[in-house]
TrEMBL record:
Its main location: membrane. It is a multi-pass membrane protein. This is Branched-chain amino acid ABC transporter permease. Belongs to the binding-protein-dependent transport system permease family. LivHM subfamily. GO terms for biological process: amino acid transport. It comes from the Bacteria. It is found in: Cell membrane. One of its GO terms (molecular function) is transmembrane transporter activity.
Amino acid sequence: MQFDLLINAIIAGLMLGGFYAAVTAGISISFGMLDIVNIAHPGFIVLGSYIAYIVNAQFGIDPIVIAILALPVFFALGTGIYGIYFHSFEKHGQDALRGLAFFFGLLFVTEVLLILVFGVDYRTVSTAYVGGSLKIGVMEFPLRMLVPALVSFAMFAALQLYMSRTFIGRAVMAVSQDPQALELMAVDPTRIKRIAFSISMATCAMAGAFLIVIQPVLPSSGREYIGRVFAICVLGGLGSLPGTLIAALLIGVIESIATTFYGPSWAPAVSFGLLLLTLAVRPSGLLGR
């Protein structure tokens, strides 16, 4: 019986880790590669959840399909936000404390607007797979967790391929290390950072759809992920998408095992304890340089 519980806890943890990876992907790009502390990222994920909720309630379209269709909208939103951030803070060398305050403001503005429009009630979506599960022997795969996890893995694979195989992707990796070198190659670092930040914002659409499939949401749901996403990003190694995925899976499995055998109150303590232990041994993170 204990072995069955352990196996299912690990399976649940891997699926939870897949969701955490999707939530953290944008932070890995904006914070890890661009050094932009977008503390509002979880708030925009919740915005993605509400967009999925509205369209699903009106037309019955699957939330993940809605998120894919909404990717250009969030990309454009990211372009606009980075434009304001650059001209107001980064251009004047004030992108540290004042930039952080800017994103804090965006977080609370987003949350307040959602409260004004939707109130503080929980919202859910209706899909064919919510409530179903796949059983293989003693192993059980809840579809509301499995489907988002699998799509998240596909999204990570696409991001990694884009970053490693395309000119823009390699330029994004370079701009975090040596912007002056890019300028010598006639590449505008600001344009590259704008594209990268827009990509990070586009991931919010996907993560928001995953969130509302997995659990009911309300405007303040993003707050509980603020500490976790930055912890996963740092644990995996700043700027490393594979490291972020590994760290997310590790945190998911540890939280799931701790919740199964010791209770949910232990999950955050154990996961952040692992973060501190890892950074004590390897300050750059699991795959950091």
